[in-house]
Amino acid sequence: MDDPFDLNRFVAAQDPVLAHVRAELAAGDKRSHWMWFVFPQLKSLGRSATALHYGLASREEALAYWRHPLLGPRLRECTALVLGVPAPRSAHAIFHSPDDLKFRSCMTLFAAVAPEEPLFRQALERFYDGPDGRTLELLGTP
Predict the structure, then answer these.
(1) How far is CA 113 from each of CA 61, 116, 120, 132, rounded to the nearest angstrom?
(2) Domain boundaries, given as residue ranges, for the chain
(3) Residue from 86, 82, 93, 64 nearest 124 by CA
(4) Distance between CA atoms of 50 and 38, rounded to whole angstroms?
(5) Four-CA torsion 132, 136, 137, 138, nearest 10 degrees
(6) How many C-beta atoms surround the C-beta of residue 28 within 10 A?
(7) Is the pLDDT confidence value at 17 over 90?
(8) How far is it, in rounded angstroms, from Cα 78 to Cα 85?
(9) What's the average model confidence in pLDDT over 64-85?
(10) Distance between CA atoms of 110 and 46, rounded to whole angstroms?
(11) What CA–CA distance (Å, rounded) separates 106 from 35?
């Protein structure tokens, strides 16, 4: 498979921990370190070497991630698991800080590049007072 964005870096990072990720999300309590490669955000929002390595550089790379035969379905599944956490549990209670902010950035990014998928908008509506403004600004989206 042609991989101009090296999306395999996400698959390689997710494969060994995906069962654990699913369990943490289903329990509504993220406890280990996988946020960067399960719920990626724009690279320009990152500071650490890990955030920069797993950051998505552009709208095109985010769209390629969404269309990837493994990564898109996994993102959908993991987002659905978060939405399945009983209310009134907040994103902060699920992800803790600062990963609750990363989740918002990720949901904003994918709501913009995959508007046909309602889960991302649903997550923004349930857990936040709207999309992440900085992500929209970086995407050039009003």
Answers:
(1) 10, 9, 10, 14
(2) 8-139
(3) 82
(4) 13
(5) 110
(6) 16
(7) yes
(8) 11
(9) 99
(10) 17
(11) 10
Cβ atoms of 52 and 46 within 8 Å: the answer is yes
> Looking at this protein, which amino acid is placed at residue 49?
A
- pLDDT computed for residue 33 by the predictor: 96
Structure tokens at 116: 């046909």
Does the pTM surpass 0.85? The reply is yes
**Furthest-apart CA atoms within the chain: distance in Å:** 43
- Which residues have CB under 8 Å from 117's CB, separation 6+? 66, 76, 110, 111
Q: Looking at domain 8-139, what is its CATH homologous superfamily?
A: Protein of unknown function DUF1810 (1.25.40.380)
Q: Which of 24, 136, 139 is nearest to 81 (CA)?
A: 24
Using a CB cutoff of 8 Å and minimum separation of 24, what contacts does 128-134 make? 128/91, 128/104, 131/104, 131/107, 132/101, 132/104, 132/105, 132/107, 132/108, 134/45, 134/105
CA distance 47 to 110: 20
Is residue 48 within 8 Å of residue 35, measured between CB atoms? no
